[in-house]
Amino acid sequence: MKHFLVFILILASNAIFACGFYPYGEDVRFSFFNPENFNYYWYSGFDYSSDSFGPNQKFADGIIKMDANEKLWMQYCRNKVSLESIKEVLFDFTLEDIADKSTNEMLRYLYKIKDIDAVNYLKFAKKCEVFNIFNENLWEHNPASLKVENRTKCIDEAILVSNSIKNKNLKQRYTFLAIRLAYYNGDFPKIRTLYTKVFETQKQDNILKYWSLYFRTFAEPNKAAASFYASQVFANAPDKRFVVSSAFNSQIPIEAVLKYAKTNKEKANVYLLGGIKKADRSLNYLKQVYKYNPELDGLSFLLLREVNKIEDWVFTPYYSLFNPSIVSYDENEKNSVKEIMKRVERDRIYAGEVLDFIKNLNLKKVQNPIFWKTCKAYLSFVTKDNQGCLNQISQLEKNIPKKDSLYNQIEIIKALALTANQKNEKAVILNDVKPILLKNKNHKKFLFAIGRELEFKGNRIDASFLYSKLEENPDNYNYYNFAYWKSSKAKVGYYTDYYSDYFTYINVFYSPEQVQTIIDETLKSEKDSDKFSAWKHSFIKKEIPRLYDLIGTKYIRQNKLEQALFYFEKNDNKSYREINYSDCLWEKENCDYRLKDPFLVLKYTPEFVVQKKIFRFDKYAITQKLILYLKQASNPVEKNKDYYNFLVANCYYNMSIYGSLWQMRRYGQGETTDIRDFPIEDNNEYYECNLAKKYYTQAYKNAKTAKFKALCLSMMARCEANKLAHKYPDDYNNPKKNYETFLWNKNRYYKDLELNYEYDYERLAFGCNAFEDYFKARR
Questions:
Q1: How far apart are CA 622 and CA 617, in angstroms?
Q2: Residue 324: helix, strand or coil by DSSP?
Q3: Per-residue CA distances from 414 to 301, 389, 395, 456, 762 (Å)
Q4: Which of 480, 441, 308, 443 is nearest to 379 (CA)?
Q5: Dist. CA 176–CA 188, nearest whole Å
Q6: How many CB atoms lie under 10 A from the CB of residue 339?
Q7: Taking the complete model, does pTM exceed 0.90, yes or no?
Q8: How far apart are CA 449 and CA 466, in angstroms?
Q9: Who has greater pLDDT, 740 or 383?
């Protein structure tokens, strides 16, 4: 008994999880408000994302033409030299290249006006470059102590020149070099002394001050003060933002950091970095930045982050039933659909609070009013004020050029609002939405969201066509552009509980009639010539044979065999109705992917009757034969009712997860695949073999010999074991003690077999080799 039950339990366990891909983080995040449309490139390393903050990579593409240091040198040279010549000296030249015979425009200018102090500074800066690293042996074989010694000499020289030179700009530059070298020397007291002496009382700020404050930040032992310095560097030295942000300690009360701020702008800078580092709601930080410095570009970026947070909190669960991207897997396991949607509504209310903040401020004061108006429109959609959103977009369309990427941004919002603004059961893909879909046909999550809005409104047919477009033009290198979603009808938290393609989804949730409607519309579209219709139906046109097979399979699940036969026959592409997966059930030699007769052979059981021929079955042939045997089994004058009922039962058993014909009911899920608790209508049948038990029972009632009755009863017991294992799973969430004994005690058929067929019990309950003998003993 134990060995046989263990075998059944291994097959039936729904707690088996396979190692593999499961979407999370940016994979599942729904975002329709693209930061790249708003040009906050200096902040882009801090775009809202489930990934960690990262250094900005956009500058390498030439988006930022001139940084603050280059601008300072341009001013120093009175705008009489080219930017390229400045870049060449700063980034390409070596110490030896800085000479009076150089053809470089910047150097020629400095020599021409006899600014030897500036030339000497450039030479000194080049000499110091080699020391701006940690733990490197600067000279080939010299010890690290010599590195510190040589660096110290440079520090002393820089301080000496800084104290004596009259040129204020060069004085600051020498001091900055001394501070930077002191940082790599680990001399934090010297950093503090130099910064206080030269930069702290400086009235006119420039990049040199904030570069120096960058090192001063890491030399500050007081964490609140260091956080304050970090916020000022962050606001004023864009190239230092990524690293200096780590010096801002979010665990320190913001009030303790604000004590160091002397001006409103400094207070705004503190709230800006504090808000950027908050992963939760930051509306109060937005309000404070606006209060102290409404013109700060960081204020707009902080709003952008907040909007990106809100859309993740709302739309990721609303459209996909996944938790927002920044959430732990354990939390995802615990949340029910009801809890998830309650949180969505709370986050919509918060979106309304942010929207009210925007409505009540003076947009003339902010750095980018168009951006704020766009946020206003989008948040109106988030709060389900679809008409309000559309009214605002109509005004924005008048002020944004159609070639601007921002125009496409508001079109995406417009398409979502237009679709969501329709009445239930009357929603369609509107004419105004069609060109937007075509324009954004590679934006998979946008296509899915429009489909989801249609589905929520009752239009599942158009939704299915949009879902089918997810499979076109696959971007194998950008998993963030895929759409992954769950269903409220399935258990949340299962490892294989999500969908990523249209077929798997309609396979589970669409009725045969709805699939037929999809086919009908696709076939009618052959006469359509408009661009959108051609695009909409292009993928499904190739899927018609597969969909016919799906309808037949759905009717098999409903046990409507005549309808299933009709659709299997209708399918001209026979490859879809073939039973392609097979291990030939038992004997594997000369298999050639051909099935032995599933009416006479059970998986892991020798054939009951030796077959003279190995058949090549498909779904049509099996269904046809099953219908024939059912008619014979129900014929009142049939003498072999026990025989035909037994064959029918075998077929139904093979159509369960325990048999060889699971493809009659499922796609891509055989015995080696994790059991998915899909809400498919025949789920109980698939795992419990109820129909098989029904016809084994009929065979038992019509059996003429004790041995054949014993065989029928043993198969009834096997079906009951499957049912009990499915009904009372021993999964990791609800482990059961003495599980085998628990199931055995509930299985009355094994008890009947043991009580009434004591001699046959051992052979039939604990083995399979005797089945042939018992089947032959039918007469």
A1: 6
A2: coil
A3: 22, 8, 12, 18, 71
A4: 308
A5: 14
A6: 13
A7: no
A8: 9
A9: 383
Q: Does residue 315 contact residue 446 with C-beta atoms inside 8 Å?
A: no
DSSP-assigned states of every residue in 143-207: -HHHHHHHHHHHHHHHHHHHHH---HHHHHHHHHHHHHHHHHHT-HHHHHHHHHHHTTT-SS--H
Q: Please name every residue paired with 618 in a beta bridge, in sequence order, or none if there are none.
A: 578
Q: Match 């018992």 to its residue by tokens.
A: 774
- The sign one gets for the Cα dihedral 542, 546, 548, 554 is negative
Helix (H, G, I), strand (E, B) or coil at 289: helix
Instruction: Give bridge partners of residue 578 from the DSSP assignment.
Output: 618
CA distance linking residue 372 with residue 353, whole number of Å: 15
pLDDT for the residue 514: 98
Alpha-carbon distance of 63 to 368, in angstroms, equals: 19
Taking only the tens place, the pLDDT of each residue in 554-573 is: 999 999 999 999 999 987 65
Q: Quote the DSSP letter at residue 618.
A: B
Contacts of 136 (CB under 8 A, 6+ apart): 147
* Beta bridge mates, 485: 499
Question: In angstroms, how far apart are the furthest CA atoms of the chain?
Answer: 121
Please tell me whether residue 499 adopts helix, strand or coil conformation: strand
**Does residue 551 contact residue 591 with C-beta atoms inside 8 Å?**
no
Task: State which amino acid sits at residue 69.
Answer: N
H runs (alpha helix) in 544-615:
544-557, 561-570
Sign of CA dihedral 380, 381, 387, 391: positive
Find out whether 656 and 687 touch, Cβ atoms under 8 Å: yes
Tokens of 30: 């729904």
Closest of 13, 27, 38 to residue 482, by C-alpha: 27
Query: Tokens standing for 458?
Result: 């009752």
Under a CB-based contact definition with an 8 Å cutoff, are residues 285 and 278 in contact? Answer: yes
Cα 479 to Cα 477: distance, rounded to the nearest angstrom: 6
Q: How many CB atoms lie within 10 A of CB 228?
A: 27
CA neighbor of 601 nearest in space, from 589, 625, 585, 622: 585
Residue 142 clears pLDDT 70, i.e. is over it: no
Rounded CA-CA distance 477/433 in Å is 28
Amino acid type, 29 = R
Using DSSP's 3-state secondary structure scheme, residue 676 falls into coil
pLDDT in tens, 156-206: 999 999 999 999 999 999 999 999 999 999 999 999 999 999 999 888 889
Backbone angles phi, psi at 485, to 5 degrees: -150, 160
- Write the single-letter amino acid at 563: Q
Angle at 336 between CA 333 and CA 341, to 5 degrees: 125
* Partners of 499 in beta bridges: 485
